[in-house]
Amino acid sequence: MAQASPIRIVCAANDKYAKPLAVMLTSLMINKKSGLPVKIYVIDGGGLSARSKERLRRTVRPYGADLLFVPFNNNKLAALNRLKIYRRYGKEAFYRIFIPELLGPGVTRALYLDSDLIVRKDITALWRLPLRGALAAAAKDPSAPGRTRRLGLPKGKYFNSGVLLINTAGWRKYGVRRRVVEFIRNNRRNIRFPDQDGLNAVLKG
Fold first, then answer.
1. Cβ atoms of 32 and 59 closer than 8 Å
2. At 198, which helix (H) or strand (E)?
3. Which letter, b or e, does each residue of 104-130 get, where b requires 16 or more Cβ atoms within 10 Å of its Cβ?
4. Closest-CA residue to 44 (of 100, 91, 78)
5. Model pLDDT, residue 1
6. What is the per-residue pLDDT for 30?
């Protein structure tokens, strides 16, 4: 009998966020009730030590989750690394926009989670959420009004990028990563939150 397709969780971290990531992954696994397997991808641009990686492996091992460290070449961020916003938030904040190309064409959806979250319910329901052709699903940000005005977006249409259910095939098809980078570079004076502002502008909230 063929194994069910796994829930694909993607995170990004450095040593500073390794411990919060371990807490988040524990909360995710403890609250998962379905029998679906879980595959966790941790994007690593060189900021995770061997000790941190081993700690993360030990964290998920009791739950039978598959954990992979995905190397990231920070030269891909050359177009952004001179911006003030890059220095303020760090390179890891931008890794999520590269998820579809990092996971490859065999993966059609992925669930990105910020490292400092706590998962309080079974993640399976979110994973199974129908996208119906949308490029992503995310929660509305409560600070939307001021941010939509600043970015010239429709009123109230601004989401938080800390939890993103991504249509990876659609992102690749429509060049979302390239368009986000271009928007950030061309609108640097209006950018306050790095990838989040860019994603909202490209995906239109």
1. no
2. helix 194-203
3. eeebbbbbbbbbebebeeebbeebeee
4. 91
5. 44
6. 98
Phi, psi of 156 (to 5 degrees): 80, 0
Give φ, ψ of 176 to 5 degrees.
-60, -45
In angstroms, the CA 64 to CA 205 distance is 36
Predicted pLDDT at 28: 98
Nearest C-alpha neighbor of 39 from the set 13, 65, 71 = 65
Q: What residues of the chain score a pLDDT lower than 70?
A: 1-3, 81-89, 143-146, 205
Structure confidence at residue 185 (pLDDT)? 84
**H or E, element range at 137:** strand 136-137
Tokens 């095939």, residue located: 169
Collapsed DSSP state (helix, strand, coil) of residue 112: strand
* Helices first, then strands: H and E counts in the chain: 9, 6
- Max CA distance (Å), the chain: 55
Cα separation, 94 vs 183, in Å, equals 13
d(CA 83, CA 36): 41
Percent of residues in the chain assigned helix, strand, coil, to nearest 5: 45, 15, 40
In terms of DSSP bridges, do strands 163-167 and 136-137 run parallel, antiparallel, or are they unpaired? antiparallel
In 26-47, which positions are buried (b, 16+ CB within 10 angstroms) versus exposed (e)?
bbbbeebeeebebbbbbbbbeb
